[in-house]
Every structure is written in C-alpha cells, then in structure tokens.
Amino acid sequence: MKALSQSRRHPLAALALLLLALLVTGGVYAFASTANEAKAQTTFSADDVEEGNKLFVANCASCHGLGASGSDAAPSLIGVGAASVDFQVGTGRMPMQMDGPQAPVKPVQFTDEQIQQMAAYVASLGAGPAIPGEEILDTSDADTSNGGELFRVNCAMCHNAAAAGGALTRGKYAPSIDGTSGKHIYEAMVTGPQNMPVFSDANITPEDKQDIIAFLDTINEQGSPGGAELGALGPVSEGLFIWVAGLGVVIAFTVWLTSRSS
Amino acid sequence: MSSSTATPAYEPKTRVGKVTNYVDSRVGGSGIVKEFGRKIFPDHWTFMFGEVALYTFVILLISGTFLTFFYDPSMAETHYEGSYLPLRGVEMSVAYASSLDISFDIRGGLFMRQVHHWSALLFVAAVAVHMLRVFFTGAFRKPREFNWVVGSVLLIMSLAAGFTGYSLPDDLLSGNGLRIIDGVMKAIPVVGTYLSFFLFGGEFPGTAVIGRLYVLHILLIPALILLLIGIHLFMVVLHKHTQFPGPGRTNTNVVGYPVGPVYAAKAGGFFFIVFGIVAAISAAFTINPIWNYGPYDPSPVSAGTQPDWYIGWVDGALRLMPGTIGNWDFEYNIPFPWGVNTLSLNVLIPALVPAAIVFTLMFAWPWIEAWVTKDKREHHLLDRPRNAPTRTGIGVAGIVFYCILWAAASSDLIATHFLVSLNDVTYWLRFLAIFGPIMGFMVARRIALALQRKDREIALHGRETGRIVRLPHGEFIEVHEPVDQYKRYTLVSFNSPEAALPQAGANGKVSATEKLRSRASRFFFEDRVAPVTPSELNASHSGHHGEIAEAQDRESIASR
Predict the structure, then answer these.
(1) Where are the domains of chain A?
(2) Could you read off the pLDDT of B53-71 as tens digits, one per residue?
(3) Which of the residues A96, A156, A172, B33 could staple to A103 if both were Cys, CB 3.0 to 4.6 A apart?
(4) ipTM of the complex as predicted
(5) Looking at chain A from residue 172 to 211, which residues have their Cβ under 8 Å from any Cβ of chain B?
(6) Do A159 and B303 touch (CB under 8 A)?
(7) Does the domain formed by A132-225 have CATH 1.10.760.10?
(8) Backbone angles phi, psi at B335, to 5 degrees
C-alpha cells in the first residue's frame, strides 16, 4: 500500500490511471450492452443461415454488398441483428422500391420462412438485437396509461399524438403506426430503422416497451370515440372540413332559401 | 301603440283576444311588429352569411352554457379516474380531467363539446365570408363605414373567443398554442416579459392562466360580442339593407320581402337548418380529440400541432420565417441605460407584421377607397365584384395571402400527403407568401375586366345562341338573341369611375397628396371597361335587329 502511495507521483501515474478508467468504463459498457441484447436470442439452424445467405446474395447483395459489408448505396448489415431484418423485410420496406430519402412500406416480398432465413444469415454476421419472442410481446399485464405517457414524451413529436405519422426534414417522415403489429413496433424501437433513433433497453425498458405497444393497440382498437376522425391530423383538417363541407352545405341551403319559384 | 282619444278603444271579443290585448296595451308589441314586420329585406343568397354567424353564435351560447355546468377551470393537479382507460391514473390538471369527464362520463357531453367546437369554427368562417361579401360588393361605403368597423372588431373578438376557448381543455395541443402566445409576447421588446408574467401570473405556465382565460371566454368576450352584435344590427336597421342593382332598384328604395311573415319564417327556419347542420357534423365527425393529446406538459410537442384555422395563418407565418439569413440571426441587443434588452425579430416579424398589415388595411379600407375615388355619395346599391376590378383584385390578394399562410401552418401535412420535402414546401410557400398575393391580384383583376368585356358584348350584341344560319349568298352567321331588358339593366347600369388627374387646390397649386391620390386613382381605374352608353345600345340595336329579322326571314323561307 505504501509503495502504491509513493508511486502516485510517478510520471506515468496519470497515464496508468487513465488506462484504468477507460478499461473500467469500457468493460462496464460492453457488459451492459451485451446484457441488453443477449436475451431472447432465437436459435437459428445452420441450414437457415445457409439458405439466408443464398437469398441475401440474390436479393440484397447488389446494394448491401457480398458479405453484407455495405456499399456506397447501402449501409453494412454486420451487427444490425435479426430484428432489423425482420422489421425491414417483414414490413415490405426492403427490398427498397426506389432510391429516396426513406424506404416506404409496401407489400411484403418474401414468405415468413424466407425472412427468418435472411434474419438468421444477418444475425450470424455479428451480434445484434434479436427478434422478440412471445413473452416479450405479451402485453396482457401492461399498463396502458404508462404506455400513453411514454408515447407522448418519446414518440408523438414525430409520429403524432394519435400515431398518425408526421413529417421530418427533406422528404423523410415518421410513418403512421396505425395497424402496425406489436412485434414490428418493438423491433423498430430496438433497431431504430430509417431515421428513427434506437430506444435501447436502458432508455425504455422492455416492460415500458410493452406498455407502449399496449397503448397503441388500445387506441387502434377502440377507434375514435367522437366519430370520424378526419385523419387524426389536427385542427388543419378540421378547418378544411368546416370550410368545404360545413360551409358548402350552408351555402346550398342559402341558395335554396333565396331562390324564387318561377 | 297610439291611444288617441279620436278612435274608440278596441274591445276584444274572444278570450285569447282579451289576453292578447291586455299584454299588447302594456308592452306595445303590435307597434313593434307593425314597424319591423314591414321592414324590407332584399333576397340574395350572399346576404345570409351574417345570419349564419348570428345563429352559430346562438348555438355557441347554448352549447357553451351546457359545458360550463361541468367544466372546472382549475389548474390544480389531480389523477384522472374517469372511464377513458388509456389515461387512467395519469397526473393532470383538474381542467383537463373535467374536459375528459365531459367527453366520456357526462351524458351528451362529448356531443355538446363537438357542437361547441364545430359551431365555433363555422362561426368564424361565417363572419369571414360575410365580411368578404361586404368587401367585394362595396357595402362598406358611405353611410356604412362605421358598421364595417364594428364588424371588423367583431371578427377580432371572435378570434379572441376562439383562442381563449381553444386553450381551456388544458391538453397538450392547447398548451402548445399558449406557449406560442407566450413566446410572441415575450418577443415584444422591453415590456414583453412583464406582459407574459402579467397574463400567466408568473412564469409560464403557472397555475392561473386557465382560470383567467375562462373568465375572458365565458364572460367578457361574449358580452362584448353581444353588445357589438346589437350595435351592428341596429345600424343595419338604421341604414337599411343594401341591394344589388336591378330594374326598379334604386339608391333610394329597398326591393324585397317584408320581414313578416315569410321572411321571418325563412330566417327563423334557417336557424334550425344551421343548428341541424352543426349537429349532424358534430354527431358524425370528431373535433379536437383531447384524449389523444394527453395532459399539458411543457416538454413534448407532438407532430401535427396546429392552431384552429382562424389563428393558423399566424402559425404559418412563424413557420415560414427563416431563423437566419446568412450570418444574421434577426436578433439585436438593444442597449438601454438599465441594461440590455433583446429584440427578437424572427418571432416579432411573423407574429405581428402580417396581422398588422391585414387588420390595418381592413379597418382603414372604407376611407382609403373614399379618398381615392373622392366619392362622398351614399351607396345603397351594391357593386358586382367584376365592376370594381381593382377592389376585387385586392380582396383576392388578401384571400390568397391568408390561404398561403394557412397552408404554411400545415406544411408538414402537405409534405407527408404529397410526398414532397418539407424544406421545399417551406421554400415555395415563402416565395408564394410574397408573390402569391401579387399574382392573385393581377389574375383576379384581369378576370374581372374580362367579365366586364363579356357583359358589354352581351349587352350590345345579345347572347350567342349557337344557331348557325347560312344566308342565300353563302354567308354563315350565328344568330344572336338580344337579352331581355331586365337582364340588360344589370349589365349596363353600374358606376365606373375614371382615373382622375391631379387637381389644383385653392391656391392654384397641385399638392403632394393630390398627386399621390391621382397616382392611386390611376392604379385603381386606368384599366377600365366603360359601361355601355345609351347611344351605343341604340346603334347596336338598330343594326342587329335588322340582321336577326333578316335571318329569321331567310329561315322561314328555307323551311317552307
């Protein structure tokens, strides 16, 4: 102990301390992030990986490169995880229909099995978020109002308070989440597709994610309590409606009232 | 009403007659009916928007009274325990919780909320359309200038009523709207912060503002609106209603139906029609779904946050304002003896300048136009909009300006729905906010002049019938049918001022204001389609009647 305290004025002491600090923070981070991603890892068979590789080469490699290492046209997929593939391909966003600010949703191009195989292949390239399992997506004991609060604080600024979607800069946008499956919502939160940020488990815990999904399911299922919601787009659509439909009907009546029988 | 001794007192025979006479001899109702029942109102569908505004205001009073029974304007914190599940247990203000209770736990509450909000939107829209009708037809001219001003104040009052009401539910959307108002107030140099603290009773949002807005919304503003409506209608009765020109309609008479009984029945029935339309809309379409937005919290702002349509243009102007141009960020620090005050022009300019321009022009317009035309006569006959091309152009420019700023308030919706870049939408709308009104002015004025030319053509040469007749020597002519004299009257009888040269004053000199007036007059009236003169009409008639008669002769010969 004395030797340690004597050497604290050694010229290299500061360097040693810095190294130690870096090691500790890096180690803790590495542990924390693996703890984040490690659970619910579905196991894929070697056959899945093999088939997935074939599908990848045939359908994805022209942009993402052989070995999924990326190109000028598209990012590397090493370490994006199976959840990413399941979301992007499972919602029809990939293969992308055209080059643009963002990949829009379109009819799904592959069967569930093929998507699983591609996910297996991408997951085999490096550790990443896995496809959430049944127990993670189980919202039976979720807290809807907590989910609502989390949604309004974390999601509504882009996706709109009623999840109807909203605009981002330069042609990018946050899509409507009306009718999106719980699995895809969960995957979007953990992988941060397109322009969406990642909401890691440290940021929003899996339980909170379940609450958000439960909230979205509730508002989708309950419909609009007050009648047709005019797109749930806010006062502009309401104003447009009263000017066109409301005033239009009023004008029709004024014309009728002041017309003369001739 | 009179109880003169010359005529014997009326003795009613029946029971009902006795009761009626008892009341009438004390209230004088028959005199009022005699006076007002014979009041004449001209009939035209564009004259009914004022009525729509009045009726929607009555609907607002009725539905608003219902809402006050259940609404609690308190900003005290509570936890929602009502029946809307996704908000159960959420911390919120009592005001928001009571608004949710109105929506979900009070029988008919949601319907009444929607009736109140939809009729508010329709109310302001009807006021705006009514004002546009008055503007485009020149009904603001002498002697109705003051009533135009009263109407303009009514418009501003209805905006105030709308905005204070928009804020009451204390949901996220209304709180965001209040935050913008707070920001605009704070941008006013020197006194801004004090004004904001004065309104909010301290730093935004505080715990006082909802109660204060509530008092303004249910007490002060409706009382002012009622008072102004009283003055407005009194002046209408005093000045009598304007009418469109037509055969037998002059500046000194009013042609139309008396109030009693048909017109009163129509107008009274129209109230129920308007109420029915509002009720049908409220039953089928949701408005301001406050349960979506959640309780107010200063941190989140959700996508699709906009104000109601009548405040939307100010929001649009704020969205269009660039934050910086080059390195200049529109901010000054004004050095004062007591320290430095910030002048934040990128909030102040969009929030106040467009409104200042529009409202100043609106209030001053009757005097601006009277100054340009030097017209001191009374006008009880309306202009057809085409017969005042420059005024029509300026009105259209105003509409275009409003629409572009309102579009800017929904720039995000334009971007997502038409799949274009939000930035491009903003750039285009910036361009259009400045040049759109100018283009609108030019196009509308040209269209008005073209319509005048068409009118002139029809008055002189009749309507094209589309019947082509071949004359014996091979010539083809189209038969024109002369319009009847009633129609022709409206085509030829209108005022058409000419551009006036500057005139020397009493001292024999042309003053600078006179030169300015002459320039304005040239701007207004230089491009002009002169109305058809009687001599032109006679000339065309003698020529054309012959031609048509000849053609008809030929036809009868051919068909023989």
Answers:
(1) 36-131, 132-225
(2) 999 999 999 999 999 999 9
(3) A96
(4) 0.87
(5) 173-174
(6) yes
(7) yes
(8) -75, 120
